Amino acid sequence: MKRVMRGEFLIAQSGASSPMTVRQALQEGTGFLSRLGIESARLDAELLLGMVLGQKREELYLSFERRLGSRQRRELQSLLERRALGEPIAYITGRREFWSLDLLVTSDVLVPRPETELLVEVSIVLMEAEFQISNFKFQILDLGTGSGNIAVSLAKEKGDSEIWATDLSLEAVRVAEINAAHHGVKRQVHFLQGDAFKPVEDKREFFHMIVSNPPYVRRGEVVALPRDVRAWEPLSALDGGIDGLDLYRRIAAEGHLYLRNGGFIALEIGDGMAEEACALFKSVSVYRECKIHRDYAGKERVVVIQKRMD
Fold first, then answer.
1. Would the pTM of this model clear 0.85, i.e. be above it?
2. Could you tell me the CA-to-CA distances from 163 to 6, 134, 139, 257, 264 in Å, in that order?
């Protein structure tokens, strides 16, 4: 990304006293971000302007000739500066859509990705296919819940489920609790601060399913991540160790202790990691086959492993 100088910014170019309409703000904001190499420049400009004006993106196009006040222009400039310096748009707006849910997002949590929706989808299909019992109560464990995007999505879709969600970060747990309350599933999801399985050590052979989007970036590849990822998002949610599989090893070694017989583990994986991830579970005799699910781009995205029946 090009180096940014304050004099290059939108408001400075237009002149603080010159009238500026919504149309002009979008055009200049988009152009400014585009010149800095931001691929999502138009979308980002829409989201930031909508944040300033308290409007949805589509509403901006119904008020093209609306004029921005001086305070609104200064606020827009400040937001554009933050984006220009690489701060993720979700951290600036404090919002991210996931599974059609509006979620609170802060710099304490990983920004939810569309790819992770496949993990939610696979988990729902699996539950419906394997547990076809009337009024069946699913017990699910979500490891490394972050913003709570997976746990809240599953709770919304499966009202007959009860979910325990753990995270090492207390700040992340607080964000997840807010999201659960906002979407009316606070009583359904139990958020616990602690390292992986430690907060649920008393729940041996209790869960029907364990789900997780573990950190899976290989340590040597962290520096190659886009700047708005490596410089802003929590390193602990990205760095999966030398080969990206640190937490997968732990789940393979301990997960079966917390699963009921015949229970499932569903995990998101990085592209090209399926074979290695499956090998970890196949090396533990208590697990059955490891199934691989590809995302809509054809990339290996989710693995599902089942605990054997006694």
1. yes
2. 48, 19, 6, 17, 14
CA dist 241 and 286 (Å) reads: 25
Chain Cα centroid distance, residue 125: 20
Using CA atoms, how far residue 153 sits from 66, 107, 123, 179, in Å, is 37, 21, 11, 10
CATH of 99-307, one of 3.90.226.10, 3.40.50.150, 3.40.50.2300, 2.60.40.1640: 3.40.50.150
Per run of 10 residues, the mean pLDDT along the chain (length 310 residues) is 48 60 95 93 96 92 92 95 95 96 97 96 90 74 98 94 97 98 97 97 96 96 92 94 96 97 96 94 94 94 92
CATH architecture of the region 6-85: Orthogonal Bundle (1.10)
DSSP 146: T
| 290 CB-side CA count, 13 A | 23
